[in-house]
Amino acid sequence: MNEQRRQILEMLAEGKITADEAERLIDAVERDQPVPPPGAALSPKTRPRYLRVVMDDNSDGGAGRINIRVPLQLLRAGVRLASLVPPQVLIRVNAELDKTGVPIDLTQLKPQHLDDLVEHLDELTVDLDQPDTKMRVYCE
User: Per the database record, which ranges form the YvlB/LiaX N-terminal domain (predicted)?
Assistant: First the structure.
């Protein structure tokens, strides 16, 4: 962990800054990382840390912009926790999800499925019914 990131986390732990401020500072520090000189060895592809969902509504009276960033570690933890739920409960949850129009089989959800999804999700554009609205789903 670099020194700047450690200092930001210490300020957060001491209550000097909020979690949102810490996130903005860490993002700024990551953006300001020096570019390696030409010919330098490229680092292996870093593992994505966030699932980002961005929607821009440019229509008249539109909602504007929605920008959601979900830590992938949270999703991974949820998948691992789902493996601890008894199968009888998962069957009941699946039935309730299906009733609400979400046909997901939680009994088939495995950590490697999430990793496969993240690995293959470069950038997905979701077409919406409104021509002036764009939605992007991607990992960063």
Answer: 3-31
| Residues found in the chain | 140
Checking DSSP bridges between strand 133-139 and strand 50-57, what pairing results, if any? Answer: antiparallel
* Cβ atoms of 48 and 138 closer than 8 Å: no
Coil, strand or helix at 65: strand
SS3 12: helix
- Burial degree of 126 (CB within 10 A; 0-12, 13-18, 19+): exposed
Enter the DSSP assignment of 129: S
**Does the model's pTM come out above 0.70?**
no
CB 135 within 8 A of CB 54: yes
Measured distance CA(47)–CA(115) in Å, rounded = 10
Structure tokens at 127: 């077409």
- E strands within the chain? 50-57, 64-71, 123-127, 133-139
